[in-house]
Every structure is written in C-alpha cells, then in structure tokens.
Design brief:
- By secondary structure, the chain is an alpha/beta fold.
- It has 9 helices and 13 strands.
- Helix 1 crosses helix 7, helix 7 runs antiparallel to helix 8 and helix 8 packs across helix 9.
- The longest helix has 17 residues.
- The two termini are 26 Å apart.
- The structure holds adenosine-5'-diphosphate.
- Adenosine-5'-diphosphate binds next to helix 7 and helix 8.
Length: 288
C-alpha cells in the first residue's frame, strides 16, 4: 500500500447550515450545526485512506478540547499522526456557514495550525514516503519538506491554496512535480516548467491537466451541490491515489473529479472517498 505524507493545516470545523449567508444588519436562520475534523492536509489524508493509501499527517494542533477531538477524529479515520505536534494554544477552528445552495462563507480563528516550523519536521517521515502532498502552511515549512523530498527522490504535489497570492510559495512551486490550483491560483502560478504538471480545478466544470505530454481535461460530474467545502482536498486525494496506482492523466482527472463531486454532494469538509463510490461515477457515468 503506498504511503503519502500530507503536510499542512489540521483544523476543527464547526459547520452552521443557514437559510442564507448573512448580510450586514441582517439575520440568517441556523438550520443545524455539526462539528468535525478539517484542515486541508487532514482532509486529503482522510480521502487517501478511503482510497487504499496509507496517510501520514504533518501539522500542528492546540492543547485544547478541539485538538483532542481533531486527533480522535483522525485516529478513527486511520490516519497516522506521527508528524502532528501539539502546540501551546488553541486549535485553529473554522466556522463554516453553508447556505441552501451549498455556498460557503468562513470565519476562522488564528489558532496554532502554523506552529510547525521547518526544523520541526522529521526528515525520516518525508524520505520514507512514496509521495508527499503539501497544502496551505508556512511557506518555509513547506519548502523544507519539498527539499527533503526532492533530495530523497520522493515525488511532490502541492496545493498552496488561496493564500498563494499573498505569501511567497515560490520555492515550493519551483520544486513540486505536480501543482494543483483553482483558476485564480493557476494565474498566480503562471506557466509550469517543462518537467512539471499543472492541474487546474474548475469547480462544476471539472479539471484540466497541462504537462509536456499534452493537455487533458475532464468535464466533472453533475451532482447536486450540498456543501462545497473540501472539494479541492477530495479532488487532490483522488488524483494522487489514481496516479499512485498507475492511472494515466485522463483517468486521474476523472477520479479526482469523482472525489470532488462526492465532497460537494455530502456535508462536511472531509469526504468518505472509496473506490466503490468512485467507480459508481467514473465507470457507470462514463469517465473519459
Ligand atoms: P477548490 O475547492 O480547491 O477551490 P474547486 O471548487 O474547483 O476547487 O473544486 C474541486 C473539484 O471538485 C473540481 O475540480 C470538481 O472536480 C469538483 N467540484 C467542485 N464543485 C463542483 C460541483 N458544483 N459539481 C460537481 N463537482 C464539483
């Protein structure tokens, strides 16, 4: 079973289903609330375990109740927490407001999800992985992990997230074999180097892959959007798992889109991906 090291944010999510996203001076009705583990690196790790990969998480949580809950949630999902440190302070908590159309607005507490510095990373965890996936985190920590991976010959994918435009991820962008971005982030990344693959996530329109071998796209799957949080993380899990089992670019895009669609069709930021559910979309609805 391939082992993927996922490094980046580990959060606690509180999701409030509301009739509409609140406007200034307005009031929205809360239909229900639910809580669970979140954070981009944690979400990808959980998705990968569902797709028959072993996942080791690198990140930081706080020494509070949300930290304990996040840890328990991930242990229950069979994610290896060898690289997760407990820092003094509160676990980063996101309050996600999701309306009836599945649109999301987020309130975030700062918390300690970036407490992990470059020197806190255990090189052995990186060097023994079959693949390294980097999500939003301190750029210097991500750069250190990418450097360790490159030195050890471990392939690296990176999805720096929406803060790519205001933080310096240039070293990670330079070292990554595969960059995963949405349309806005892809503009910030620019043209990939000849040996790099750029995967652009296109929301309901699926995804596109550009590499020296050519450009491929997959239109995605038509599902009713319930909650779009975590769609990009589920996509990453599907894409990476497919590549690790030897799938070509077209099928990897289809599997990524299937996992993204599963995330959108279900509540919460973590997605229970499985090959059975992926097959129900990719093989039964015509993958590519
Ligand atoms: P991010 O969440 O990182 O901004 P996207 O919004 O593009 O990225 O979503 C990631 C992936 O999830 C898409 O590439 C697509 O496969 C899937 N996805 C997103 N929104 C929808 C939707 N409304 N219907 C079906 N699939 C979707």
């Amino acid at each position: 079973m391939p082992r993927v090291l996922c490094a980046g944010h580990v959060n606690w999510d509180v999701t409030l289903r509301v009739d509409r996203l609140p406007q200034p001076d307005g009031e929205s009705a809360v239909r229900n609330t639910r809580q669970g583990g979140g954070g981009s690196a944690a979400n990808v790790a959980v998705g990968l375990v569902g797709l028959d990969c072993a996942a080791t998480l690198v990140g930081s949580i706080g020494d509070d109740e949300h930290g304990l809950l996040a840890r328990r949630d991930l242990e229950r999902a069979d994610v290896d927490l060898a690289g997760v440190v407990t820092a003094d302070g509160v676990t980063t908590t996101k309050y996600l407001l999701v309306d009836d159309k599945g649109q999301v607005a987020v309130l975030g507490s700062a918390g300690v999800n970036e407490a992990l510095g470059p020197d806190d990373v255990d090189p052995a965890l990186v060097e023994t992985a079959d693949h390294v996936h980097l999500t939003a985190q301190r750029p210097e920590t991500a750069a250190r992990i990418a450097e360790l991976a490159v030195e050890a010959g471990v392939p690296v994918s990176a999805d720096p997230g929406r803060r790519i435009t205001d933080r310096d991820f240039s070293r990670v962008i330079e070292l990554a074999d595969v960059l995963l971005c949405n349309r806005i982030e892809a503009e910030a990344v620019g043209d990939p180097a000849p040996d790099q693959t750029l995967v652009t996530k296109l929301g309901p329109d699926g995804s596109r892959l550009e590499s020296a071998d050519g450009t491929y796209s997959h239109p995605g799957f038509d599902v009713e959007a319930v909650d779009t949080t975590g769609a990009g993380d589920a996509f990453a899990a599907g894409f990476i798992a497919a590549r690790l089992q030897g799938d070509g670019p077209e099928r990897a895009l289809a599997v990524g889109n299937a996992c993204g669609a599963l995330a959108v069709a279900t509540e919460g930021s973590k997605t229970d991906c499985s090959w059975e559910l992926v097959a129900s979309l990719v093989d039964e609805r015509g993958g590519f």
